[in-house]
């Protein structure tokens, strides 16, 4: 639990999606003592495997129909999937897992009320995750949900600041051009007041 508190603090300081995924994939693997972890985002009716940390490459950067993968099942059902044997669980598209090291897994939804993603951990051996491990992973997923919302708010704030800065710069350029024009007119008027057409 002390480690989870540290991770929540790290997530509270994350300002980008990449930083959030880096923290989460490493933390999930560490806390579950797993051989791999993945960070999945919902992308409409697909699951996007955004990032992973594992003993061998898995599915980073790939998209799968939400109805055809365990992360999708976890999101659609708004609950964790604990799978001690991927060969025997009907929720697992075993053909996708056959070439990998994965024998057991747990998948938890990010934001259970309206899932926006999932966090998965994998073992290269048959393993039955206990209730405490699942609970800690779900707590991590809940903290991740808040971190992702913070990232979105931060990005929107940065966009607004950038837009406002651009608006102020444009206004400043306009004022400078107005000043230059006024100075030009004043110089011309001064020249006219000091010079007559006959003598120059």
Q: Mind explaining what this structure looks like?
A:
The protein is of the alpha+beta class and 200 residues long. 52% of the residues lie in helices and 18% in strands. It has helices spanning 2-13, 17-32, 70-77, 94-97, 131-194; strands at residues 36-43, 46-54, 63-65, 81-83, 104-110, 117-123. Strands 3-2-1-6-5-4 form a 6-stranded antiparallel sheet, with helices on both faces. A hairpin with an 8-residue loop joins strand 2 and strand 3. It is rod-shaped. 34% of the residues are buried. The model has no long low-confidence stretch (mean pLDDT 89).
Please tally the helical runs, counting DSSP H or I stretches of 4 or more residues: 5
Helix/strand/pairing category: alpha+beta
**If you average the pLDDT, what whole number results?**
89
Largest sheet: 6 strands, antiparallel
The amount of helix comes to: 40-55%
**What's the number of extended β-strand segments?**
6
Give the C-alpha Rg. Answer: 29 Å
Strand content: 15-25%
Could you tell me how far the N terminus lies from the C terminus, measured between alpha carbons in angstroms?
A: 90 Å
Low-pLDDT parts are: none
**SSE topology string:** HHEEEHEHEEH
The geometry reads as rod-shaped
Q: Give the quaternary arrangement of the chains.
A: single chain
Lateral strand order in the biggest sheet = 3-2-1-6-5-4
């Amino acid at each position: 639990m002390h480690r989870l508190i540290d991770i929540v603090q790290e997530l509270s300081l994350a300002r980008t999606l990449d930083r959030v995924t880096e923290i989460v994939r490493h933390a999930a693997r560490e806390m579950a003592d797993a051989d791999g972890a993945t960070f999945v985002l919902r992308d409409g009716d697909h699951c996007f495997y955004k990032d992973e940390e594992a003993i061998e490459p898995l599915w980073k950067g790939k998209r799968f129909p939400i109805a055809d993968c365990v992360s999708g099942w976890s999101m659609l059902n708004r609950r964790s999937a604990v799978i001690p044997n991927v060969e025997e669980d009907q929720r697992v598209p075993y053909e996708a897992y056959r070439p990998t090291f994965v024998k057991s897994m747990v998948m938890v939804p990010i934001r259970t009320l309206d899932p926006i993603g999932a966090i998965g951990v994998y073992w290269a051996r048959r393993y039955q995750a206990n209730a405490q491990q699942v609970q800690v992973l779900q707590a991590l997923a809940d903290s991740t949900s808040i971190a992702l919302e913070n990232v979105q708010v931060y990005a929107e704030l940065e966009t607004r600041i950038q837009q406002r800065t651009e608006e102020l710069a444009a206004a400043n350029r306009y004022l400078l051009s107005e000043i230059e024009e006024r100075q030009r007119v004043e110089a011309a008027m001064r020249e006219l007041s000091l010079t007559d057409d006959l003598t120059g």
